[in-house]
Automatic annotation (TrEMBL):
This is L-ornithine N(5)-monooxygenase. It comes from the Eukaryota. It comes from Emiliania huxleyi (strain CCMP1516). Residues 475-494 are annotated as: Disordered. Residues 485-494 have a biased composition (Low complexity).
Length: 494
């Protein structure tokens, strides 16, 4: 019996993570009824990295705008899916949500879902649960470019010598007891691990925290004001700070004074921000940890000691090393064309830290034209003009200038969509995945900040020009135009 069969579809979508799910959802609404999709997914359930996240994980941004346009995830206040700083879906709630969404997709008859399979790009095929090889004939391949890595997906990224202290991914933390916990990493995952230990009653003296680089935290209750449920006051403050300051660091310090940002200690000036949101109460709790190790990244674990970039840390017997070293945003890059013939590479950078809205927009743009070059014009980054590249690395690791380039990318896409016409802007603006959509925030509040005395709309344009042409002391301009040669005195006289 032949164990090979063929599948045909318009769009072959790799993975059922947030990026792909949002793309397919919007395509189902925007494309013709005959457009078909195949989704292949390594994990048994949709939801991408949430399948292997640590048990105490939650969203760190409000649930209300996360996921796909057609299905709510957040709580309602009246008829509005309100963006509350305390409404944060747990990992299992996110997974339930995506299972529900996938069931809806499949029920349309336009989507076929193949879980627990790995697509092989070379042979254009995968082997299904029955061992049958399926070759896929498609018009367009859709790939999620972020490929999030979390600690449970791989062994520690440094050598661990035999006889060294036990090292476990953060997922094991709730069931592990130790006399000393050494938390490796200070991103959102490391921060969550320390908070988890403190909240379950572990004495801060039992905790050592390896902080390779200090980071700016976004203070959630100030950014998502419970009163307004709108992020716009923060966007206004952020825009004003960047317009007024010659350096990005200066702007961040101004935002810290205004209560939007926080850091572990005032003695250390962070030069990175990976968008981790915590509350002010969390920050105070984190500050109780006294043993903060600032010796760079871990390079090796030896019996009785930890080797780091800038020194060595002795390890007492019975220490548990908690691996939180993966960078959840490390796969975010902006050095490629989103559209090339027969291929869409989903960018997470159309709206900053919002892969849900980014993918919904890619779907919208996909339906505006068949011409790849025309569609790429909506996107701020390309292979020829990459964004986010710092020190030769294209990956987003939270450098402040990468964050500002992310803001630039968002503004540029928004302007391109605005220029494309009212219908396009209406989609951008009203999509559930947009933080300021009228389904989350009353329209009059948004219009007041955008076009009222604060004039955020005009300021955003000025900020875009500043990022493009002038830059900051700590970031060169992204698109410096050659200056016109000054007219010579002789010609001026003539
Ligand atoms: C702890 C944590 C908390 C976060 N909280 C938020 C938040 O509150 N709000 C927010 O907006 N973002 C948040 N993020 C950011 C996160 O990156 C996005 O939310 C989003 O989940 C990323 O989705 P993705 O589809 O790009 O990638 P992934 O989740 O990595 O999905 C990609 C999928 O593709 C599959 N795949 C890859 N290759 C193949 C192949 N060859 N064949 C078959 N399948 C394949 C993978 O197995 C995976 O299932 C958080 C991230 C982390 C790590």
């Amino acid at each position: 019996m032949d164990s090979t069969s063929k599948l045909a579809c318009d769009y072959l979508c790799i993975g059922a993570g947030t990026a792909t799910m949002s793309f397919v959802d919007s395509m189902l609404t925007l494309s013709t009824d005959s457009t078909s999709f195949v989704i292949v997914n390594k994990q048994p359930a949709p939801g991408g990295h949430w399948n292997v996240a640590y048990p105490f994980v939650t969203l760190h941004q409000p649930s209300g705008a996360y996921g796909v346009c057609s299905e709510p995830l957040g709580k309602f206040k009246g008829r509005r899916e309100f963006l509350s700083p305390t409404d944060l879906a747990t990992g299992s709630e996110v997974l339930e949500y995506y299972s529900r969404v996938m069931a809806k997709f499949v029920a349309t008859g336009r989507v076929r879902f193949y879980p627990s399979v790995t697509y092989d790009f070379d042979t254009r095929s995968f082997t299904d649960a029955e061992g049958q090889v399926k070759t896929v004939c498609f018009t367009t391949l859709v790939t999620p470019e972020s490929y999030v890595t979390v600690p449970s997906m791989r062994p520690p990224p440094f050598p661990v010598e035999e006889g060294a202290a036990t090292i476990k991914p953060v997922n094991a933390l709730p069931t592990e007891e130790a006399s000393r916990y050494v938390v490796l990493g200070c991103g959102k995952t490391g921060t969550d691990a320390v908070l988890h230990l403190l909240r379950r009653g572990v004495d801060q003296r039992q905790i050592s925290w390896v902080v390779p680089r200090d980071t700016w935290y976004l203070l959630r209750e100030k950014i998502w004001s419970p009163a307004s449920g709108s992020i716009l006051p923060f966007k206004l403050a952020f825009t004003n700070a960047l317009l007024r300051s010659d350096s990005i660091l200066g702007a961040f310090k101004a935002l810290e004074r205004a209560g939007y940002l926080g850091r572990l200690t005032l003695d250390h000036e962070p030069v990175q921000c990976r968008g981790a949101l915590i509350t002010t109460a969390d920050l105070h709790l984190l500050r109780t940890v006294q043993d903060v190790v600032r010796l760079g990244r871990v390079t090796a674990v030896r019996p009785n000691r930890l080797e780091l970039e800038k020194g060595t840390m002795p390890l007492e017997p019975g220490s548990l090393l908690v691996d939180c070293t993966a960078c959840g945003t490390g796969g975010y890059t902006a050095n490629y064309d989103v559209w090339s013939p027969g291929h869409i590479r989903l960018s997470s950078n159309l709206t900053l830290f919002n892969p849900s809205h980014s993918s919904a927009l890619v779907a919208y743009i996909e339906t505006t034209s068949t011409d790849a070059a025309a569609k790429n014009k909506f996107i701020a980054h390309s292979a020829a003009s990459p964004l986010l590249v710092v020190d030769g690395s294209p990956n987003f690791h939270g450098h402040l200038s990468q964050l500002v380039q992310g803001v630039y990318s968002e503004l540029k896409t928004m302007r391109a969509i605005q220029a494309h016409g009212k219908k396009s802007f209406n989609f951008y603006f009203a999509a559930r995945t947009n933080y300021v959509a009228p389904c989350h925030v009353p329209l009059r509040k948004t219009l007041w900040v955008m076009f009222g005395p604060a004039r955020l709309d005009k300021k955003a344009t000025r900020l875009m020009r500043k990022i493009e042409r002038v830059g900051f002391e700590d970031m060169p301009p992204v698109d410096p135009r050659p200056r016109k040669a000054a007219a010579s005195p002789a010609r001026m006289v003539a």
